[in-house]
Design goal:
By secondary structure, the protein is of the alpha/beta class. Helices cover about 30% and strands about 15% of the residues. The protein is elongated, with a radius of gyration of 24 Å.
């Protein structure tokens, strides 16, 4: 255009359309044509810039909308070499496993898929995503830069989501592990409870490691304090005989394991018997199997 500015194709779209480098990259990566006229004297306004396809339905139920987010994060994981390499180094690179559990990655591109925030449809979908915890009040994605693990219940709906940051250059105080705000709902891999013996891990990636090594009777709690009443009830209802605890071998993990391992549950009752020498024969035993 005779302006004397140099740069590559991505930088051209970035400057001409007044958008971020990432937005320009995503537009070009999807084969989007750039609406450009050599006679134009000024760049286009933001409202004229082609948006990426919005895969989210603001009218969907919470579990359905979370499922759409999980699908999107899974799609982004498969296109992100750094995230795939992180999982591979942890022994979690099996494609079949990633697909089965919809493992994903929040690569900061979700916001680029939403309609402009100045429009009604853009405001509506952002409000819904904020209500379910995917977007914070600041407008940032809750799981930015994280591997994501959706907790899918037996009917097939997403009830909860976990995120694990994969970069080391985080600001001081940034948590590595994240869940959606509010009380935890659901439990991962309900099929595990079809076995008479269940392995219970402290964290999602630990449980995935067991599953990747052919221990498909594995699930996890929400941290060392996250043994929920819902999981308690499900263990009883599925007639699980033994729960083997595989918590972190640190002070918090060992203390939590010892606390739970001291419990056994009487037959036909949800009452917790605090001593293993109770005269009533226990229906379920919990054992700490880590050193």
């Amino acid at each position: 255009m005779g302006c004397g500015v140099a740069g590559n194709a991505i930088q051209f779209v970035e400057r001409f359309d007044k958008i971020s480098f990432r937005h320009a990259y995503e537009l070009l990566a999807e084969g989007g044509a750039v609406a450009f006229s050599s006679s134009a004297s000024t760049p286009k306004s933001r409202s004229d810039v082609r948006r990426l396809e919005n895969p989210f339905d603001p009218e969907a139920l919470d579990s359905e909308l979370l499922g759409q987010v999980a699908d999107y994060y899974h799609e982004r994981l498969l296109k992100n070499p750094a995230a795939l390499e992180y999982l591979k180094k942890r022994g979690l690179g099996d494609e079949a496993m990633l697909k089965r559990f919809k493992i994903g990655f929040a690569d900061r591109s979700l916001g680029l898929r939403l309609p402009c925030k100045t429009r009604q449809e853009g405001q509506q979908i952002r409000k819904r995503l904020q209500q379910i915890g995917i977007i914070r009040e600041s407008g940032h994605e809750h799981f930015n830069g994280s591997i994501t693990v959706p907790i899918i219940d037996q009917p097939g709906f997403v009830a909860e989501m976990y995120g694990r940051k994969i970069t080391s250059n985080l600001r001081k105080g940034t948590p590595l592990h994240l869940y959606l705000p509010g009380p935890h709902d659901g439990f991962w891999n309900p099929a595990a409870l079809e076995n008479s013996s269940v392995i219970l891990c402290e964290a999602p990636l630990d449980a995935l490691t067991f599953w990747a090594n052919n221990f498909d009777n594995t699930t996890f709690i929400y941290g060392c304090q996250g043994f929920t009443d819902e999981l308690f009830k499900a263990l009883i209802e599925h007639n699980v005989r033994t729960v083997r605890l595989a918590y972190d071998n640190d002070e918090a993990g060992n203390r939590a394991a010892e606390r739970l391992a001291s419990r056994s549950f009487g037959s036909g009752s949800r009452r917790a018997w605090m001593r293993t020498n109770t005269p009533q024969k226990p229906r379920l035993r919990i054992r700490h199997c880590m050193p």
